[in-house]
From TrEMBL:
Keywords: DNA-binding, Transcription, Transcription regulation. InterPro entries: ArsR-like_HTH, AsnC-type_HTH_dom, Dimeric_a/b-barrel, Tscrpt_reg_AsnC-like, Tscrpt_reg_AsnC/Lrp_C, Tscrpt_reg_HTH_AsnC-type_CS, WH-like_DNA-bd_sf, WH_DNA-bd_sf. GO terms for cellular component: cytosol. GO terms for biological process: regulation of DNA-templated transcription; response to amino acid. Residues 5-66 form the HTH asnC-type domain. This is AsnC family transcriptional regulator. One of its GO terms (molecular function) is sequence-specific DNA binding. It holds the Pfam family AsnC_trans_reg. Transmembrane segments: none annotated.
Amino acid sequence: MSLRIDEMDKKILGELQRDAAQSLDEIAKRVGSSKTPVWNRIRKLREAGVIRQQTVLLDAEALGFEACFFVLIRTSEHEADWQAKFLKALRERPEVLEAHRLAGDIDYILKVQVQNARAYDTFYQALISEVKVHNVTALLSMEEIKSTTMLPL
């Protein structure tokens, strides 16, 4: 389903990105519309897949997840069955917040959020026991400077 996104849609999406918990009345007021047209637009954006899900953002450090590692993975395996096994292993691990397949020297990069270095080692040992990788480099984030889920509409 192809949907044309106009300026009003962008305003509504911006408000939802800022705070998806706000009421339809609040969103309508902020974008200069009324409740029913805003609801109809949100419904169409959901149906078109523009809005994938609504969720909450948790403070990892407040919950004891103080270590964020960026894990660079090189593999000498590029067969479909290896990749399926690797992707399954990543999807089954909740500490993997993001995983990207890359162009260039590094094959994959993972963002892994854990309590501490010991928890990272447990993750690492489990991963390499399931899938063969050529090289793994883990980089500990010393400070999060910017993190957002908001797209620049």
